């Protein structure tokens, strides 16, 4: 068994967790959380509209499903307050265990729910789905910030941005795992089998991953930076109040610094999957519905790209590999160039990408694949540094609460409503996705303003109890 050790830097005090344990604990937790989250996101597009909602047409059912998808983002700020309170009051370790347990149980139970087509469950099935989705959001609301703090508060001097990429890697890894399971199921099962019971498998098997994550996290010790707060007796009685009193400006800036990152990711995953797998013609849509054994109403039909579910998920997984690679690349770049300078350049590139999004996705398979690779590479470059940037905005005593609130309020502004807005813009333009890309550009410009108003955080004293 590895033993705790002290890293001889100006930023650590007392015993720390071994580097390998930090990497595994921060990475595996977010990978599991994002696996759970993306399993729902994929199902919300592919099967939940017809299983849990009984709207009059395809578009209304899809919008209803995406609305429930957004419930988790509303829950995430609540989770950030709840878990941030305990993370800044009792410590990072116990809070991380609680967040993982909550989300894991909720995800498993989604796989057990009856559908709206089960007699007597027309109302209760979607209602319980909303409850489980809310619990998923609560768990993830506390997960990310704790994992980021676990990584960065155990980092050697000059390596926080590198260590901060470990929890960020959970997003591409969780996405690949979740959607890889869907691809395998799609190949192994007929459309009718997948519709009847195959969709449950990712949710049910997630409980095994949760057990592994809990085992790793129980072996952690408290982070040295927070232990310093405990030893000094400077724990905030109500971290939320102290955060709003002493760190309202960093919370505001952090929220808008994250805005474009959220919009980009959910455009490149949830929306592109919707657009890519929607049949290109009414006849094709009718045939797909008949093959899956579900009703079809041509009212409200929107033309998409017409890829099969398996083909587009495979293309998306390839794109997410680039997301993972550039997440790793972003850490050393942020140390060398500075967090702020790197993010300003990447955000400007995101704004340009929004303007060419429709051109790429209307250019055939080569254009679609190029669009996925470019968009998800930019996602890695903007998401990677956030594991260090947001926590660095705050003093240790309110770091869990402040970074969690910024991260998760941004999820409401940038992600909760984004998939619904994307579909609405797509529908308003009669199948064109130009305005979808323009929406990304607008949010990138807002993020640029926030970055210009902020300062680089790479040289802050990370063990400062108050700031």
Automatic annotation (TrEMBL):
Keyword vocabulary terms for this entry: Cell membrane, Membrane, Symport, Transmembrane, Transmembrane helix, Transport
CDD domains: MFS_ShiA_like
GO cellular component, one term: plasma membrane
Location(s), subcellular: Cell membrane
GO molecular function terms listed in the Swiss-Prot or TrEMBL record: symporter activity
Domain of life: Bacteria
InterPro entries: MFS_dom (IPR020846), MFS_sugar_transport-like (IPR005828), MFS_trans_sf (IPR036259), Sugar_transporter_CS (IPR005829)
Segments forming a coiled coil: none
Residues covered by the Major facilitator superfamily (MFS) profile domain: 22-456
PANTHER family according to UniProt: INNER MEMBRANE METABOLITE TRANSPORT PROTEIN YHJE, SHIKIMATE TRANSPORTER
Protein name: Putative proline/betaine transporter
Species this chain originates from: Auraticoccus cholistanensis
């Amino acid at each position: 068994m590895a033993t705790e050790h002290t890293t001889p830097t100006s930023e650590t005090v007392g015993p720390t967790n071994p580097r390998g344990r930090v990497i595994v604990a921060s990475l595996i937790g977010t990978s599991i959380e994002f696996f759970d989250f993306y399993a729902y996101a994929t199902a919300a597009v592919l099967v939940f509209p017809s299983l849990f909602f009984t709207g009059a047409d395809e578009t209304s059912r899809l919008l209803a499903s995406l609305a429930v998808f957004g419930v988790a983002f509303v829950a995430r700020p609540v989770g950030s307050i709840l878990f941030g309170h305990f993370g800044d009051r009792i410590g990072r370790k116990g809070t991380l265990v609680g967040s993982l347990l909550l989300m894991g149980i909720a995800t498993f139970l989604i796989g057990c729910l009856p559908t709206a087509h089960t007699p007597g469950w027309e109302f209760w099935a979607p209602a319980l789905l909303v409850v489980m989705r809310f619990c998923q959001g609560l768990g993830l609301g506390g997960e990310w910030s704790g994992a980021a703090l676990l990584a960065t508060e155990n980092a050697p001097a000059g390596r926080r941005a590198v260590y901060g990429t470990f929890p960020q890697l959970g997003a591409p890894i969780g996405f690949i795992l979740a959607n890889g399971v869907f691809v395998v199921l799609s190949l192994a099962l007929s459309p009718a089998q997948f519709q009847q019971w195959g969709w449950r498998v990712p949710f049910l098997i997630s409980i095994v991953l949760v057990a592994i994550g809990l085992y790793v996290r129980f072996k952690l010790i408290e982070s040295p930076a927070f232990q310093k707060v405990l030893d000094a007796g400077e724990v905030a009685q109500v971290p939320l109040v102290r955060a709003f009193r002493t760190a309202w400006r960093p919370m505001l800036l952090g929220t808008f610094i994250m805005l474009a990152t959220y919009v980009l990711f959910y455009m490149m995953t949830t929306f592109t999957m919707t657009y890519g797998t929607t049949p290109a013609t009414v006849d094709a849509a009718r045939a797909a519905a008949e093959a899956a054994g579900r009703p079809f109403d041509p009212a409200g039909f929107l033309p998409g790209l017409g890829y099969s579910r398996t083909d587009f998920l495979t293309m998306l997984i390839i794109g997410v590999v680039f997301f993972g690679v550039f997440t790793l690349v972003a850490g050393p770049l942020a140390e060398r160039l500075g967090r702020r300078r790197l993010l300003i350049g990447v955000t400007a590139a995101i704004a340009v990408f929004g303007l060419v999004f429709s051109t790429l996705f209307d250019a055939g398979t080569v254009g679609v694949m190029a669009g996925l690779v470019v968009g998800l590479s930019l996602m890695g470059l903007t998401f990677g540094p956030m594991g260090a940037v947001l926590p660095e905005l705050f003093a240790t005593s309110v770091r869990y609460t402040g970074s969690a609130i910024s991260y998760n309020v941004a999820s409401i502004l940038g992600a909760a409503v984004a998939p619904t807005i994307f579909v609405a813009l797509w529908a308003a333009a009669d199948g064109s996705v130009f305005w979808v890309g323009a929406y990304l550009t607008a949010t990138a410009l807002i993020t640029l303003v926030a970055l210009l108003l902020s300062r680089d955080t790479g040289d802050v004293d990370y063990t400062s109890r108050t700031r």
